[in-house]
Design brief:
With about 280 residues, the chain is α/β, with parallel strands linked by helices. About 40% of the residues lie in helices and about 15% in strands. Bound molecules: nicotinamide-adenine-dinucleotide.
Length: about 280
């Protein structure tokens, strides 16, 4: 490969990219990285203020970005977001399905066994993680099917490989996200175009809003036994930081991964490779 072709491997110049949950802890750095690599970024988030303030921050770097209020569980909201992105950027080449999460009401603890978990909390977690990935893939994937090219990147989890204790709905929903990633990769390539690729990142353990209550003591900030156990099972001996995801992100959304589809890449400090012995 000659030098100019080599430089184009990770080039996203002028590429319109949509990021759901784009204002969140892991996805905001992704939005900044996409913009720094030349992409035009649409930050979609249910938190309209956070989406717009991130977009404004990115625009201040001379890159193109828009913030759009959007609920990934509402098809009408997704369709109107798609119209805004099309009007502004003309097409959509990249979709990152970043919206997701767990909540305490769907988590077992000494006071709340599996048998007591409220159906509505379980359903909330299923919907946000699984339907919140499927519905945007329908809306933005349809545009990719029409233009016969595009990249979708889902966010799975360590729970998809083997479930962690305490979070049954989140584990099952993320297993669903990994399974759906494979399904959609095959469907898009076979039915529409081999230029449409679908992959996922499975982040290891990142200390963020949704898991801080499980990993650190809220009074002292010390690691809980669960937090200690995670570090003990992570050969690289630390939690991840959001920037750890960026290299894999840029690889999977750029021409550098042109022959890669239907995979789930762990970015986990070795957690999923370690048997514990
Ligand atoms: N934090 C971790 O350690 C970790 C590990 C593995 C996977 N993940 C996954 O990474 C993704 C991002 O997680 P995070 O830790 O950055 O979470 P976060 O809570 O910081 O970000 C999630 C974002 O999604 C938005 N959002 C929530 N509901 C929405 C909806 N219905 N429609 C649109 N936007 C919505 C929130 O406003 C928020 O900005 C999630 O899928 C999460 O499950 C996180």
């Amino acid at each position: 490969m000659d030098s100019p072709s080599f430089q184009k491997l990770f080039d996203l110049s002028g590429t319109p990219a949509v990021v759901t949950g784009g204002a969140g802890v892991l996805c905001a750095p992704m939005c900044r990285a996409l913009a720094a690599a030349g992409a035009k970024v649409a930050v979609l988030d249910v938190d309209a203020g956070a989406a717009e303030s991130l977009a404004a921050e990115i625009r201040a770097t001379e890159a193109q970005a828009i913030g759009i209020a959007c609920d990934v569980l509402d098809k009408t909201s997704l369709e109107s977001a798609a119209q805004i992105v099309l009007a502004k950027f003309g097409r959509v080449d990249v979709l990152i399905n970043g919206a997701g999460g767990n909540k305490p009401a769907a988590t077992t603890n000494p006071e709340q066994t599996f048998f007591d978990l409220p159906a509505e909390a379980l359903r909330w977690v299923f919907d946000l993680n699984l339907m919140g990935t499927i519905l945007p893939s329908q809306v933005f994937g349809k545009l990719m099917a029409r233009q016969k090219s595009g990249v979708i990147l889902n966010i799975s989890s360590m729970n998809a490989f083997r479930p962690l204790t305490r979070i049954p709905a989140y584990s099952a929903a993320k297993a669903g996200v990994s399974n759906f990633t494979q399904w959609l990769a095959v469907y898009m390539a076979q039915e529409y175009s081999p230029e449409i690729r679908v992959n996922a990142i499975a982040p290891g353990f990142f200390l963020t809003g949704q898991n801080r209550y499980l990993l650190t003591d809220k009074e002292t900030g010390d690691l809980t036994p669960r937090g200690q156990s995670i570090i003990g099972h992570t050969p690289l001996k630390r939690f991840g930081i959001p920037d750890d995801l960026l290299g894999t992100l840029l690889w999977l959304v750029s021409p550098a991964s042109a022959f890669v589809t239907g995979i789930v890449v762990p970015v986990d400090g070795g957690f999923s490779a370690f048997s514990g012995v």
